[in-house]
Design goal:
Elements lengths: L2 H4 L6 H33 L4 H49 L3 H4 L4 H43 L1 H48 L1 H6 L3 H26 L2 H25 L5 H43 L19 E8 L10 E8 L4 E6 L5 H6 L9 E6 L2 E2 L5 H7 E4 L8 E2 H5 L8 H10 L3 H4 L9 E2 L8 H13 L5 E5 L7 H14 L4 E5 L3 H4 L4 E6 L2 E6 L1 H7 L1 H12 L6
Parallel strand pairs: 3-10, 3-11, 6-9, 9-10
Antiparallel strand pairs: 1-2, 1-4, 4-5, 7-8, 11-12
Helix pairs in contact: 2-3, 2-5, 2-10, 3-5, 5-6, 5-10, 6-8, 6-9, 6-10, 9-10, 14-16, 19-20
Length: about 575
């Protein structure tokens, strides 16, 4: 078991320690039972001593009950320890993910993270429970049973001693052969989960394009791969039981032969032979437990490595010891900023950008697809860190702020913002969980969302389903804008966040921004000229560079890209869409 992962046991150390101790006590009781059974046969029955049979039988029942109590308590504590360990692991992974930047998250697929939080942790949980119970029980049972056998019949004990490494080696060989298949299957699980996730999230698109057959075929292929990998592994592991049973029957037959001969010549009693057979079976069953746990540990080892990848991921952004906690104003400065998603040496998405935005300004950004408009604004709240240069907010480098303080004052409505399962009020209060109903309604009015909310039967208590699929695209955008406004930010960034609303609603939103939050710096990325035409300043992006800056009138005179977009939209009728 991975040592780093074991740190997550934490408050369940007590249960994790008591479980194996109770298992040891249970084994001691179970080892004494065959000895008492032998005495009942050899002394009580052979000498017709009913008193001895009753007395020893009562002791045997008492030992069995004590063993039962120890075993039940060990099982209970083991379940608590393993379930608690799994709970802590999920907590640690989930909280670690919360510290990830976009760059960190890009290292893992969504489905891969989900598999780690579910299937992988379940594997580790099962292996942990078997380790603190069966893996403690089996070796002690083997040793004690072997000692007891030695005291009864040395020849039988030697035979069992020879059998143990042969059988143990065979079972370990089987487990090792199966291990590579179990490792492969988890990568395929990621693909399987990703396929399901894509299909469910895009269910409307699948139905609209009548692609259900294609999706079924795609799912069938990956499902078959998972089936084949598991089948190969299980076929190998399936040899465990036949090998064990064959060995068990052979050992019993040899013991009966040796024991029968010793009984005939008076070197051994019937009860002793019975107890030796029981001890031998206990040893063989313990070996089977070891092989089973060994398989589980190898499966869990593959899962542990995947979990450790997440826990070992170093967050690209961490607060400094003297991080700033106050953002003075909404001033924004880009000083010789270059950025690459691949880090140093990668292809630059932004190239030597210099820019100054005054607090309270309305700034429009336009540009073609791939011109790095979204990349530019994502550097402001430090969703990514610059590769070269510096981005400053309120006169300080964004890297000097605590992430919470910075992001509390920089609200971003991204292109792919989502709503969460819960009421409309719950979703809006992501901006401020302590906001009053009046504050929620106010920001919804600013975002032009209040009117359609009032039309719902439940109004602000209307439930939003997963992903916000029961509201339209334009309604979802307006709810996301309202959520961002509730933070009362010094900087508000709308990344093409009014694309699904009509031009009249778009205009009303911008008017509300200008009148109601004049001191907030507002950055609007848009494809429509009408969305940015009245901005204080418009930035034209092209191939990761600033191609032009100015008002609409200035850019019409001086910037060819802006002029072409303006004329194509106005003359093409897009202006009045």
């Amino acid at each position: 078991m991975n040592r780093k992962l074991l740190r997550s046991v934490r408050e369940y150390k007590r249960e994790s320690i008591l479980t194996p101790l109770l298992v040891v006590m249970e084994v001691f009781m179970e080892v004494l039972i065959p000895l008492l059974m032998a005495n009942i046969i050899d002394i009580g029955i052979m000498e017709s001593d009913m008193g001895y049979i009753v007395k020893t039988g009562a002791l045997l029942v008492l030992l069995a009950m004590v063993a039962l109590v120890f075993g039940a308590k060990a099982g209970n504590l083991g379940a608590v320890a393993s379930a608690g360990y799994a709970k802590n692991l999920r907590h640690d992974i989930f909280y670690k993910i919360q510290d990830f930047s976009f760059g960190n998250i890009d290292h893992f697929s969504t489905s891969g993270l989900v598999t780690r939080l579910t299937t992988d942790i379940t594997n580790v949980q099962m292996a942990y429970m078997f380790t603190i119970r069966l893996l403690v029980r089996a070796p002690i049972m083997i040793v004690l049973s072997l000692i007891m056998t030695l005291t009864i019949n040395v020849k039988v004990a030697v035979m069992i001693l020879i059998t143990i490494p042969i059988l143990g080696g065979t079972l370990i060989f089987i487990a090792k052969k199966a291990h590579p298949h179990f490792i492969k299957v988890f990568d395929e699980y990621d693909i399987l989960n990703n396929t399901v996730q894509e299909n469910v999230n895009a269910a409307r698109v699948v139905k609209a394009y009548v692609r259900a057959d294609y999706e079924n075929e795609k799912f069938g292929k990956i499902s078959t791969i998972v089936y084949n990998l598991f089948t190969r592994a299980e076929k190998i592991v399936a040899w465990n039981n036949p090998v064990m049973m064959f060995t068990m029957y052979v050992v019993v037959l040899v013991m009966v032969y040796i024991g029968g001969e010793d009984i005939v010549f008076g070197r051994m009693q019937t009860g002793e032979l019975t107890s030796v057979i029981v001890y031998a079976l206990q040893i063989l069953m313990s070996l089977m437990m070891v092989s089973f746990v060994f398989v589980m540990i190898m499966i869990a080892e593959a899962s542990s490595d995947r979990i450790k990848e997440v826990l070992d991921e170093v967050p690209e952004m961490e607060d400094g010891a003297d991080a700033l906690t106050e953002v003075a104003n909404g001033d924004i400065d880009f000083e010789n900023v270059s950025f690459s998603y691949g880090g140093e040496g990668g292809n630059l998405s932004l190239k030597d950008v210099n820019l100054h935005i005054k607090s309270g300004q309305i700034v429009g950004i336009i540009g073609g697809t791939g011109s790095a408009k979204s990349t530019l604004v994502q550097l402001i709240p430090r969703l990514y860190d610059v590769t070269k240069g510096a981005v400053k907010v309120g006169g300080h480098d964004v890297r000097d702020y605590s992430l919470k303080a910075l992001r509390d004052q920089v609200s971003v409505v991204l292109q792919k913002n989502v709503l969460f399962t819960g009421t409309i009020s719950d979703n809006i209060r992501w901006g401020d969980e302590n906001a009053s109903d009046e504050e929620v309604q106010r920001v919804c009015k600013l975002a032009q969302a209040d009117s359609f909310i009032q039309e719902f039967p439940g109004k602000y208590n209307t439930m939003i389903v997963e992903g916000g699929n029961n509201v339209s695209g334009g309604q979802k955008q307006r709810l996301c804008i309202a959520r961002a406004l509730l933070k009362k930010p010094k900087i508000l960034i709308l990344d093409d966040s009014t694309s699904a609303v009509d031009t009249r609603t778009d205009a009303l939103i911008r008017q509300a921004f200008r009148e109601e939050i004049p001191d907030t710096t507002k950055i609007i990325i848009a494809q429509r000229i009408s969305s940015v035409e009245d901005a204080d300043v418009i930035i034209v992006m092209d191939d990761g560079k600033i191609n032009g800056i100015g008002t609409s009138e200035e850019l019409l005179r001086t910037n060819e890209i802006y002029r072409e977009v303006y004329e194509s939209q106005v003359k093409g009728g897009a202006y009045n869409e």
